[in-house]
Amino acid sequence: MSHDEAGEQAIAVVRRNTEEVQGRGDFELFEELFADDFIDHTPQPGTTADKDGVRILYHRLREAFSDFRPEIHWQTVDGDLVTTFKTYHGTHRGDFLGIAPTGRTVRFDTVDAMRVRDGRIVEHWGVADLYGVVGQLGASGGGPG
Known about the structure:
By secondary structure, this protein is an alpha+beta fold. 33% of the residues lie in helices and 34% in strands. The protein is built from 4 helices and 5 strands, in the order ααβαββββα. It has a 5-stranded mixed sheet with strand order 1-5-4-3-2. Strand 2 (69-78) and strand 3 (81-91) form a beta hairpin. The longest helix has 20 residues, at 3-22. The radius of gyration is 16 Å and the shape is globular.
């Protein structure tokens, strides 16, 4: 396999995770795409830095935003490391970070990097503005507005 083919394969793995696991809730595919020794270098609060932690996070997002939908803007690959810039969209219909459902539509941007080895995701680094979502849900606790 050429360097370009390996990069394209890595991008395809990350895209399938974004679109089919996160976007459609295909957790059987999740089990295939994530390596058992996966490490999350930037786990979200209330999760662990392993495969179980990501599974919990994905379930929480889909439970809180039943129409959770990722929109990939671009992806790039450097060796086995895939970087993705995307926007998530959803309607708040379930508990999220302790906030009861508001019915509000939210969107938040994420940039993340995932290392893909042998067709499986083995590492993750990411910046997700989940607390920006809290503000969109009107739970920032600030003054009138």
